[in-house]
Amino acid sequence: MKANRFQDKVALVTGGNSGIGRAAAMMFAAEGAKVVIAARRKDLGDSVVQDIKNQGGQAAFIRTDVTRREDIESLFEAITTQYGRLDCAFNNAGVSSSAMRRTVNTTMEDWDWTMNTNLKGVWLCMKHEIPLMLKQGGGAIVNNSSIAGLRSEAGISIYAASKHAVLGLTRAAALDYAHRKVRINAVCPGFIHTPMLEEPWQLNPKIQDLTREMVPMKRFGKPEEIAGAVLWMCSGEASFMTGREMVIGGGQAIHS
Ligand SMILES: NC(=O)c1ccc[n+]([C@@H]2O[C@H](COP(=O)([O-])OP(=O)(O)OC[C@H]3O[C@@H](n4cnc5c(N)ncnc54)[C@H](OP(=O)(O)O)[C@@H]3O)[C@@H](O)[C@H]2O)c1
Q1: Average pLDDT, the chain
Q2: What's the CATH code, domain 10-192+224-248?
Q3: pLDDT at 100
Q4: What's the pLDDT at 203?
């Protein structure tokens, strides 16, 4: 029987039009949530909304660039006007590719693009999510970090810095609001088969096999394998968990 843990709840998923975010949006909707998908590509956003509606769920796409303050303000104005509440938020929007170079070869543009999306975007969203949740007496936030938020490899310095910072932000914000029933946790995925993972395969197809070999389970994760954990952390079943990260990587980072 399908669980209905999010019946009549409102759930925001940034980057909900692709990959891990798309899987989370579909799952929230399948469990009764009214889902708000925030990202830049409208065509992909509209197609997820349609898929959700075809399955009898409720969803809306609001075009948002998480690096832009005005976009974030409009997003939360729309959520307030349309729903008047926010129960769950998955701050998932992120980028990686331009940051995937050795430190000296990265540029100011790489830094700004990666940090503005992966870190400032999460912070800006939380600044608006938390007051809505406080007003209604509680809520749950999950931020998407990475195994690269716990440890690093060569060639990912800016990405790793952004994802380490997401964990620091998550822990500090969780302590700010633990006594007021807003729980804030993070997920740290390993290699998950999404468009982001595929990006470097276009440049060098050998990367696909090399990265798969790094996973003790010798396979990539599926977006749904992260989304399921995100939903659990947002649910009442995780009611005593805050300020922590869940690592899901097929055995990667066991020794972090
Ligand atoms: N796949 C992995 O192996 C892996 C591992 C660890 C962590 N992660 C993290 O998981 C998250 C999702 O990535 P994914 O693997 O699912 O890749 P993906 O399919 O490329 O999804 C990235 C999502 O972020 C959105 N996004 C990017 N920049 C944005 C911006 N400025 N404003 C709003 N939305 C933006 C994209 O939508 P638009 O382009 O339409 O805006 C897209 O929905 C990222 O934070 C990533 O770092 C992924």
Answers
A1: 96
A2: 3.40.50.720
A3: 75
A4: 85
Residue 202's pLDDT band, with cuts at 50, 70 and 90, is confident
Cα dihedral 122/124/125/130 (nearest 10): 110
In this prediction, residue 2 carries a pLDDT of 63
Residue closest to 71 by CA, chosen among 34, 121, 12? 121
Annotated active-site residue 83? The verdict is no
Q: What is the C-alpha separation between 170 and 184, in angstroms, rounded?
A: 6
Residue extents of the structural domains in the chain: 10-192+224-248
What is the mean predicted confidence (pLDDT) over 198-208? 91
Mean pLDDT of 224-244: 98
Contacts with 131 (C-beta within 8 Å, 6 or more apart), sequence order: none
Is it the case that residue 1 has pLDDT exceeding 60? Answer: no
Chain length of the chain: 256
Q: What share of the chain is helix, strand, coil (3-state, %, to 5)?
A: 50, 15, 30
Pocket test for ligand 1, best of 67, 110, 123, 196 (most atoms within 8 A of CB): 196
Which of 13, 37, 40 most suits a substitution to test ligand 1, by most atoms within 8 Å of the C-beta? 40
Task: Select which of 6, 61, 159, 191 is catalytic.
Answer: 159
Within 13 Å of residue 189, how many CA atoms lie on the same side as its CB? 25
Task: State mean pLDDT over 155-162.
Answer: 95
Pocket of ligand 1 (CB under 6 A): 14-15, 17-21, 39-41, 44, 64-67, 92-96, 117, 144, 146, 189, 191-192, 194-197
37 pLDDT higher than 90 = yes
